[in-house]
What we know:
By secondary structure, the protein is of the alpha/beta class. The chain is built from 13 helices and 17 strands.
Amino acid sequence: xxxxxEHQLQSARRQFFxxxxxxxxxxxxxxxxxxxxxSGARGPAAGAAPGRGLPGLPHFTAKAxxxxxxxxxxxxxxxxxxxxxxRLSDLHGTPVPDGYIGGKRFSTMTxxxxxxxxLAPIEHFHQHGQSGAWVSELLPYTAGxxxxxxxxxxxRTDAINHAPAISLLLSGAQPPxxxxxxxxxxxxxxxxxxxxxxxxxxxxxxxxxxxxxIFYDFYWGAGFLPSRFQGVKFRGSNDxxxxxKNPDGVSRQMRREMLDDIAAINELKLxxxxxxxxxTRIAQYEMAFKMQASVPDLTDLSKEPQSVLDLYGPSVxxxxxxxxxCLMARRLIERDVRFVQVMHAGWDQHSxxxxxxxxxxxxxxxxxxxxxxxxxxxxxxxxxxxxxGGEFGRTPFIQGDIKDRKRWGRDHHPYxxxxxxxxxGVRAGMSHGETDDLAMNVVRDPVHVHDLQATVLxxxxxxxxRLTYRFQGRNFRLTDVHGRVVTEILQGLPGSxxx
Length: 499
């Protein structure tokens, strides 16, 4: 951009905020500074008061207080893991019948699906628990908690590539730039914790994977909401938050006094221009100061019983692994963090179903099941909603040469996939929805990603049509102009029990 033009734009923005000092700026300042002054702090840096969200929220009694989203980046293959179809084995190596693919759009790697060969699941399925849920031998630990889970086997989406599909599922729109689910919840319901962010993100990748999926920052962004609602990413190391520690020679008291002075300067600027991003800066400084004390305690696993560590598997003590992040998720929600987004990449098996899928399942199966079991034994599962799933499914037909088993793969499939949920007022031990006999298309109780979003918000006491934010002349919401609550999977409401 032309530097002069950019300066003019910024000047106009500053003038707008300066003239609007009696509007949004004062509201932001009041919400941020109220608690700091009430507690006798020197400056205004104490941040927003815990529990303070929008007036009138929640809209009704919530079944869940917090969410852990175990997001499997790259799209797990539903036909390999949860959606058992005997006919896939019967038709292995034969072309997909025309009636299943007519008029459907697939990724450019597949192009037209005409003539593609059916690929049978690479491992056997069995039914588990009193619910009789079908789970692959690839996921023995998940199979062991089948009666605690609600499988949604009729998920569908509009996107056929990873980043747009993830953005659609997490923010309600395929292009980046909208607020994500954790940001909406934090904006609407506020925070119940003083010394940790309300929205935390952790990422991991299986070792040795050839999956090239990238974790984009907009997967946990605040979009057009004030940036203080965006997710805070914890790194996979013993030092999870950059620049949190004081430099050598700087004591905690010195840091406190420095922050108070910086806050006083920022408050003067805020009063002059009423820019809500200045208020965000004040809150972020204060949060960082508080996290200096809370994060070391959070990451100290020395008091975790060995029996609990064993639930999550052998890599639980290794920072940056999926198992470690699952344990951190439990420790975070114990401390009243509202939304924890655990993202694990490596599920994009275009040519590695017979190799890397085993690695993905081994890395994620035990920690996912262990997290549910750990929450349950602590009494936290009842009001914690756990979600496991990716952005779409994988094709029932093969990608690659069926004669070369080592290179078997499956392409992107938006027309049907499976997620599971646990806790948070969701019915346990049930499967909702159904695909056809090739797991190609949804034939009963379809659930769009907007429906999933509406259901998550509902469980936290939010009417998805009423949680809005006005931007560029219209009211936006997480579910855009779509979405219905999937009442059939909720406790106390009529539902499905078919498996």
